[in-house]
Write a structure and sequence with these properties.
Nucleotide Exchange Factor Grpe, Chain A, domain 2; three-stranded mixed sheet; 13% strand
Length: 233
């Protein structure tokens, strides 16, 4: 009777052995996947338990952003102020030029009147003036008119340009003829056909002038004995 019971006890399998047999009979690939999943779960749980190990994302500093905006606005303000100052100066300069040169066209037209008055005075000699009282009185009125016109010219900054004896200036003078004058240096104004005028510092009309050609070039001086001297040793 005891022998069957011992046999049955010998055939009985323990639970730990059954689990070992079940694990041994499992697929190796599934076992590897299970190990990887378990390892990942363990690392995630450790990171959650230690939040200090997670690096925070870089965020822009609000103070630095504010400083950048202030610098940008300051630069724009300085540029706007400089542009405003330039516009103001340009406006003042244009206003001054307008006040100085507004009558330039009118003054240029009045130059012909001054020329005609001067021609009228130059057409009558002193003898004819002395022998004809009526003519002398007429010419006196012409002289008064010319002086009054010249006074208005002076009032508005209109000046006469009469460059006789001066070096020709192409900015103020217009040469219309060259004259042989050995006593004058080349380019010197020796004759004025028509005087010029300027208003302030601008040219109204160039003076029409004749300039000296200058003395011809002197020939080379010959040696005293007519022989060339060799200076080479």
């Amino acid at each position: 009777m005891n022998e069957p019971e011992n046999f049955e006890n010998s055939e009985e399998v323990k639970p730990e052995a059954a689990e070992a047999q079940k694990a041994a009979s499992a697929d190796p690939v599934s076992l590897a996947a299970a190990k990887v999943a378990a390892e990942a779960a363990r690392e995630a749980s450790q990171e959650t338990a230690n939040p200090e190990t997670v690096e925070p994302a870089d965020e822009p500093d609000e103070l630095e952003l504010a400083y950048g905006e202030v610098a940008d606005l300051k630069d724009k303000l300085l540029r706007a102020m400089a542009e405003t100052e330039n516009i103001k100066r340009r406006g003042e300069r244009e206003k001054t030029d307008l006040r100085k040169y507004a009558i330039a066209d009118f003054a240029r037209d009045m130059l012909a009147v001054s020329d005609n008055l001067q021609r009228a005075l130059s057409a009558v000699s002193d003898e004819h003036r002395k022998g004809n009282p009526e003519m002398a009185q007429l010419l006196e009125g012409v002289e008064l008119t010319q002086r009054e016109l010249q006074g208005h010219f002076d009032k508005h900054g209109i000046r006469e340009v009469n460059p006789l004896g001066e070096k020709m200036d192409p900015n103020l003078h217009q040469a219309v003829v060259q004259i042989d004058d050995p006593e004058a240096a080349q380019g010197t104004v020796v004759q004025v056909m028509q005087v010029g005028y300027v208003i302030q510092d601008r040219l109204l009309r160039a003076a029409m002038v004749g300039v000296a050609k200058g003395a011809p070039a002197a020939p080379k001086a010959a040696d005293d004995d007519g022989q060339n001297v060799d200076t080479q040793a």
